[in-house]
Amino acid sequence: MNFQFHTPFLSNSNQYHPDNLITLTSNLPDPTISVRTVDEVLKAIEQGKVM
Fold first, then answer.
1. pTM as predicted
2. Is 5 part of any domain?
3. DSSP state, 27?
């Protein structure tokens, strides 16, 4: 087996600097996940609706 991995080019690695990632993630909107109840899913399946 060959375990030689590609090393990223150093000039491109600045975009992945922790400070840049922290800034990026702090500007993201709050995640909102709509979770359906089992009853809602079963009812939709019975009615042939796509979820």
1. 0.32
2. no
3. T
